[in-house]
User: What shape does this take?
Amino acid sequence: MDSVSTVPTAVLILGLFWLWGRMERALDKLNLARYQPVPIPSKCIYTPDQVSVIVCTVDTLLARCLRSWLANHPLELLIVTIPEHEDHILSVVANASLSAADFAKVKVLTSTTKGKRVQLAVGIRHTKGTIIASTDDHISWGPDFLKGMLPCFEDETVGAVGPTMTAAIRNDRQSSDIITPWEVAATRTAWNRNFQLKASYAAARWCWVLSGGMGVFRAFILKDPMFTLSYTNDAWLGKKMEAGEDTFVSRWLQSHDWTIAIQALPETEVRRTVKASPDFLKQMFRWERSTIRTHIRTVLDVPQIYKSFFVARKTFGRLLRPVLTTCHLLAWVFTFLSAGRTCVFALLLVAWYILESYPSYRTFFAEYPYMRRYWWAAAGQDFFYVIQDYVCWMTLNDIRWEGRKVSAEEQHRRD
Assistant: This one.
């Protein structure tokens, strides 16, 4: 393509992307406005004492999270670890300052094999409740979490319910002098995802991935022997999968015509710890590889996506994002390298995008004022996909799963 035709084409591409962005933004606002959580009734068919809570851990169970789960008065709490860490987990439970009634609800199980999938399967096999709540060992709930989630199951088409999540920043870290850019980026990630969950559910009663960190399910779905067999033997290009357990569960629900509901109420928002080091990048790459793989498999294995134009469009759009990003970047390069009015047009477009995004950052930093020092980390997180997509597509066969490490002091914190 010669230089005469390149610049007008680049400008046209930028204009089309701008128009596309405006349409997507308008639709997102419309869908967010349409989102309605299920209200909490005075009396519900399902009650917390019907819920079995499963927590899969190795040696990083947080006592304060343990107390938050039991404060919801579930039927039982099953903690699944591996034999070499059983004594340590029992010690965390024993030192968690539990009442006798709560202590009696806790049962520590062991799996001969380490891994989220096999450990969860052990927990599922031992549950007694009609509802199963699966949570990561570092996620804490509010005291009315289960009361807020359970009303969703009065809709017989709902097979699982997911909450919104926020970052759990310890009180002693809520300072601009202590907080790290990685925590800011992680908090921004969770903040953005909450809006996306509500918008997609309002648009099509759809959730692509119910976070593996926290989900509430009808027990008979997870107790289905076919589910367990498929879940524990899932493979990608011949390699047995350990990472991406949440994406498998989501696809299973969707392909069996179950709705994954999103319940966004103050009572149902959960708090999860976030990484304060560059390890957050590894986590982001792992999450994105898992997301790409599940979108590929959703196209192949979940025909239900074609029932909704919104879901089909978003699914294929996610897979094509690296191609679209490349076109967009090249259009910016050619436009900025030109002289005169086209370069001015590009500068005005940049100014527009900055002004358009400002309200989002203003709202975010109003909620987390101590993070303002690292505003660039929040902005960088919003555009990290530009790098993330290319790296993850090139390393798509990396199915490794990384565990967490926390200190003994952190496991017994009371805040």
